[in-house]
Amino acid sequence: MSLCLQARQLACERDDRWLFEGLDLDIHSGEIVRIEGPNGSGKTTLLKILSGQLSDYHGELYWGGAPMHEVREHFLANLLYLGHAPGVKAGLTPLENLAWYQALSGEQGSESAREEALAHVGLSGFEDVPAGQLSAGQQRRIALARLTLTQRALWVLDEPFTAIDRHGVGALEAQLVAHANAGGCVLVTTHHELTASPVLRRVQLG
Amino acid sequence: MHSSNATIDAPVMSMHDPKGGLVVALNATLKRDLTLMLRRRGEVLNPLVFFALVITLFPIGISPDPELLAAIAPGLLWVAALLAALLSLDSLFRSDYEDGSLEQLLLAPQPLAALGLAKVAVHWLLTGLPLALMAPVLGIMLSLPAGSYAVLALSLAVGTASLSLIGAIGAALTVGLARGGVLLSLLVLPLYIPILIFGAGAVQAAIMGDGVMAHLAILGALLAVALMLAPWAIAASLRISING
Amino acid sequence: MWAFIHKLGSPKWFYSISAKLQPWFWGAATLLLVTGTLWGLAFAPADYQQGNSFRIIYVHVPAAFLAQSIFVSMAIAGLVFMVWKIKVADMAASVMAPLGAAMTFVALFSGAVWGVPTWGTWWMWDARLTSMLILLFLYLGVIALRGAFSSRDSGSRAASVLAMVGVINIPIIKYSVDWWYTLHQPATFSITGRAAMPMEMWAPLLIMVLGFYSFFIALILMRTRSEILRREANKRWVRELVGEAR
Q1: Which A-chain residues 42-71 have CB contacts (< 8 A) with chain C?
Q2: Most buried among A52, A67, B87, B236, by the most CB within 10 A?
Q3: Each residue of B27-59: pLDDT tens digit?
Q4: pTM, 2 dp
Q5: Hey, what domains does chain A have and what are their CATH numbers?
Q6: Which residues of A touch C85 (CB under 8 A)?
Q7: B236 contacts C183? CB cut-off 8 A
Q8: Is A193 on the interface with C (CB under 8 A)?
Q9: Which helix (H) or strand (E) holds B31?
Q10: ipTM greater than 0.85
Q11: Structural domain boundaries in chain B
C-alpha cells in the first residue's frame, strides 16, 4: 500500500454554515502540505476530518486508494496527530507520558528509547519531573518527542510551533523536512512561516 | 536515533500494519489511570468522605432511634453510596478531554470501547469497591441488623460496577460541556433506578431472611448487560463529545 | 431500498409528502377523539366499584401508551439519524421529545387526579405512576442534553445516543419497578391493573387510544414541517417556497 491520502469533494457543514465545499486533496509521500486560511476558516476541522476524528462531513476519503472506512485501522496505525492541546498528563512524568503513547499503539518500547527521544527535544534532565511542573513550551516538547519515538508515515500537526522557542522551531522545521525527504508526509497548519521547506505545498481555505 | 535518517534515500516510508497489542494498550491505560488517581489521593477519598457525611445527616435529620434507622438503613446506605459514586463520575473523562489525551485515545489503533472500559474499571476499583468495603462500617452506625453485612458489601460491589458503566455513558456525553456536572446527574439517575431496587432489595431480603440469591443474580445479570452494551455507548458518546 | 431511504430523508420531499398526509391524520384524530369522548363519558356504563371516576381512564391510559410509544419512536429516529445521517429523522426526534414529556405529564396528572377518589390522596407510589415519573425524568434528560450543546449537530447526536440508551432501559425499569411494587405493597389495587373489562367500556378506550395516536402523528408532522423550514431557512427550495407564498 503506498502512502497516499486523498479527499474527494470534501465538504463540511457546521450548523448551517459551509466551512468548505468541494475540496479535492491529494497528499503523497514526500510532501509537506500546509493548510492556510484566516481564523475560523475550518483549518482545525479539516485536519480533524483528515485524521479520522470527525464523521459528519460530506465527500470521500481514501487511504492508499481504498475507502477510509475499510482501512481505518491501517490508517490509524500510520498516523501521528498532534492537536491544539498537547495531550500531556500533568500528573505524569515525561517518561510515563511517552510510555502510555507507545503502549497505545501496541508496543512496549524501551526506556532508553524514550530517554533518547526526550533528549532529542531538549528535555534531558526533566525525565522524572511531573509534566505539570514544566512550562507550556516544555509540555509541547514532550508531545513533539513522539515524532521521534514512534515511527509513523503520516504526520498531522495542528499548530505544532505554539509555545516553542526559536531554536526549537528551527529544529522542528528541519525534522519535518527530514521526514518528508525520508518518504513520509506532513500535513500542518501554522501561523509560523516555514522557511527551510523546499517541498512545501499550500492549500488555501476560506 | 531517528529511524528516517537510516532510510533517507528511500522514496517511500515503510508502513506499519496494525499490530494489535490491545493487551499492552489496556495494561498501560489501567496503569496510567491508577497512577494518576493515586497521585491525587484526595480525589479518591472525597467520595468516601461524602458517603460517610450523608449517612451522618440521616440520624440527625430524622431520628436517632435505632429501630427506625435499622428499618431504613438498607435504602439509605444504597442511596448514599449511589450518590457518592455519581459525584466522582464527572471527572472520569474531563481531565483527558481538557489536556487533549482524549483525542489521542480516540486515534489509537485500538478499539475505543475497550480503552473506555479500562478507564471505567479504574473508576470502579477506586470508587465502587472502596464504597462497598466501607458500607458495613456505616451499617453499624445505622444499626443495620446482623446477618446482612456481607450482602450489603457484595451487592454494592456488584451494583457499583453497573453504576460506573452506566454513569460513564453520561460522563462521556457531558464531558465537552462546561457545566456538565448537574446535567450528568439528571441523565444518569433515572437509569440507576433498577440497580438501586435490586441492590437495596438484596439487603432487605437478607434482613427478612428471604432468598438473597435472586436479587444478587439479577444484579449480576444487569452488570452483564451493562458490560456488553455500555462500552459501545461510551465510545459513541466520546466521539460525539470530541466534536465540541 | 437505499435510494428510497435517501429520498425519504430529503427534507424537501418529506415536506411535500407530509403536507398531503397531514389532513388525513387531523381528520382521523378529530373523528376518533370526538366519538371516543362522547361514548366514553356519556354512554359507557359506570364502574360498579369506582362509579363515574373510572372514566378518567379514557385520558390516562391513552396518554400513558403514547408517552411510551413516543420515547420508542424518538429512539428509532435517533438510530436512523446516527446510522444513515438522515436529518429529517433528527428533526422529528427533536420535536417528539417535548411532546412526549407533555404526554407523560398528562398521564401523571390524570393518574394523580384519579388517585383522589380511588385512594383518597393525590399521590401513591403505584407501579405505573412510578414508572411514568421515571419516564418523565428520562424525557427531561434528553431535552436538557440536546439544549446543552452549543453545536446543534453534536446536541442531536448526543440526544440520539441517550434516547437509545434510555429505550434499552425502559423495559428494565418497568420490570424492576413492578417487582419493587409487588414486594412492598401487595395489597393495594392498581388503578388500571384489572383485566376483564366489558366491551362497552374498552371499545371507547380503544377508540381514544387510536385518536390520541392520530392526533400525535398529525402534530408531529406539523411540528417537523416547521422545524424543517427553520433549519433549512437558507436553502434555495425554502426561499422559493416562501417567495411563492408571499
Answers
A1: 56
A2: B236
A3: 999 999 999 999 988 888 999 999 999 999 999
A4: 0.91
A5: 31-48+79-204 (3.40.50.300)
A6: 56
A7: no
A8: no
A9: helix B22-39
A10: yes
A11: 42-243
